[in-house]
Structure formats: C-alpha cells, structure tokens
Amino acid sequence: MARRRQPPGRKRRTREHVIADLAVNFVERAVLLCGYTAELITKDYGIDLVIDTFDAQGEREIGQLDVQVKATDAVAMTADRGSVLFRVSAADLKAWLFEVAPVILVVYDAPADSAYWLDVQEYAQAANLDIVRYKKLTLRVPVTNRWTPDAVRELRDRKNQLFDRMERRFP
After folding, report:
1. Which tens digits make up the pLDDT trace of 56-101?
2. Alpha carbons 160 and 71: distance in angstroms, whole number
C-alpha cells in the first residue's frame, strides 16, 4: 500500500511528545491503582497533575499532591548510580517551595519504563538549596524512590500528616 503524500510543513509528533504522554500515563496508572484521582492540568505552570486521595470509606481527604512530570530517554545518574540527576529552573523551584501542598517531581525513564520521585520541598529544606544565586539547579532523585502504587500511598500518608499538623495549629 502506497503512503499517502502529505502537504509540506505539517505539525509532527516528536519523540519528546510521545515520552511526555507515556510519563503522564505511567504516573496516572499508579495513582488510579490506589483508588485516587489524578487531574491533568492543561495550562501547565510547573504542575502537571493534581492528585486527590480518598479514605477507606471513599471520602475525599483534605489537601492534594501536586506533581510535575518530566520524561527523558537518557537518565543522568550519579557515579554511584544511587541518584538520578535532573536539572530544574530556579523559577520552578521557587514556585514549588511556596506551595502548601507537597510538590512531587517525577522523572520518567522512557527506555526502562520506570520513574523516580522526589518530594521537592523536603529535599530543598534538607539540602539547603541556594535558589537565589542560580538560574538552574541539579536535583538528586534517589533511585530507591521508585514511582509505584506503594510510593503514592506513602506520599498520601505524608500529605495527610502535613494537613493534620496544620489542622491542629489552626483548628
């Protein structure tokens, strides 16, 4: 069967588009397997998905998880292969640090069909990052932080603890 000729200059679906969609699908699947919801943000200003969690009775819990999803065909690793290295803009990092809800960076390794996560606020606090002096920073995402349904449940528990503390402070 002959290939139909297309007019020149048409839009192309690039590899970057394909792996970006695969990354979001990978993240959403783990969330859905937990019985939670993941809402895709179409006007992306540094947050791609918002995860709502539910208790054992199916009632929506307070708070949410904000997720930024990044996809790559070439994961950069530390020499000891203990962390994925990922560059982010200081502007994104600043915005994430001022969010009330936990912000999770998920780096999707397309060839391996796997992903790793980082609680950005927790990481920035522990690493004492200098977000004023630099335009871009390299974050270290531990390879032990695999994006799985168990990881989603762990992040849900962290989020619930955060909002429980807030509720006790501001009843």
Report:
1. 999 999 999 999 999 999 999 999 999 999 999 999 999 999 999 9
2. 28
Q: Which residue has the tokens 């695969």?
A: 22
Q: Is the pLDDT of residue 170 over 90?
A: no
DSSP assignment letter at 135: S
For 108, the token pair is 């999707």
Q: Listing from the earlier edge strand, what are the strands of the sheet with 83-89?
A: 76-77, 83-89, 136-142
pTM of the model: 0.91
The CA distance from 6 to 14, in Å, is 17
DSSP line for 50-94: EEE-B-TTSPBPSS-EEEEEEEESS-EE-TTSSEEEEEEEHHHHH
With left for phi above 0 and alpha for psi between -120 and 50, is residue 63 left, alpha or beta? left
